[in-house]
Predict the 3D structure of the following.
Amino acid sequence: MKSQKSRIAIVRLSALGDIVNTAIVLQIIHKHYPNALIDWYVEEAFAPLLSNHPLIHEVIAVPLKKIKTTKSLSLLKQTIQNLRSRPKYDQIIDAQGLLKSAIVTFFLKGAVHGFDRQSARESVAAWFYETTSAIAYEMNVIKRNVLVITEALNIPYDKNDIIHKAPLFSLANKPLELTGVKNIACVIGASWPSKCYPKEHFATICDTLPYPCHLIWGNESEYRDAQWIAQRSANTHIAPKMSLGELVNFIGHCDLIIGNDTGPTHMGWAMNRASITLFGPTNERMIFPTAINIGIKSPSSVNILNINRNDFSIKQIDPQNVIQKAKELLL
C-alpha cells in the first residue's frame, strides 16, 4: 500500500451469509488506512445490503446470476466492459476464492491477491492471483476473511478487532412490528433442507419463550412454514416481507436471534445482537463465537471439505436445550 488514500477492491460476490461475515474487514481496513477508497464487487442481488455503507466508496453490482440464467451475450459483454472501465486499484483482493470471483478480478486493473491453491475453495482460482495467502479452508470463516485481507494489505491480525467491532451495518428506526420490552427473531429457512431446524421444534421454542418471537422468512415455502408455526403458537408473529436493508435493521433491533446456519442468522453477530445458530451438516466454523453469540451442533460429525447435504441430524437438537440457552442470553 502506497498511502492511506490508496484504492482497494474487494471481490466477494455471494452468498448473503458470506458477505455479512466479510463486512468486518471494512472496519479493520479503515482503522489502518482511514482515507482508503474501498470498492466492493458483489452479486447484483446482494448489492442493496452494501449500498450506502459509510465505509464503502462504491458498490459495484455484478450480474453473474442473471448472465447465467438469461445466457445473454450482450449482458456478458456489457459486464466485461464495465469491469474493464474501472479505475486502476492499488490492491484487488478476491475474498471468495472461486473461479467466478477470480474471473471478475481478471478484468480489473491492479495487482490481485487471493487464497493459494491449497486454501481456495476452487483451487483453479489461484491461477489468477499475483500473490496468495495460505489459510486453511477448515479455519473459522470470519478469521479466514480477515486474514486474506490483512495479509494482502500488510495489516497485523488482531483478534480484538473482531471481538470489539462496532455493528457492521447502520441502524435505522425501530420497526413498528417490534413492540414490548424484548423481541426474538427466529430464522426458519436456509439454502438447504438439511440445514433447516424442524418447524415443530420452532413452534415449541416460540411457545415456551417469554417474549414475542418474530418468524423470518424468505420465500413462499418458508412463509407456509411460518404460518404453520404461528397457528400452533400464540407467541409468534410472522415478520413482513423485507428488503435486505430492512432485514438487517429488523435483526439489529431484536434482542435475540435463533436460527439456522444462514445469512439472516449471521446478521445477529454482525449487529452485535445475541444469537443462537443451529448446526446440522455444517458446524461452528461458520460463526465467530462470543459470550452472546453461540452455536448448538447436532451429534453428527462434519467434514468441512466434503459436506454431506443429506445430513439431517439438526432434527436431533433438543428444543429444550435451545430454550435454556435462549433464556440465559435474554437475562
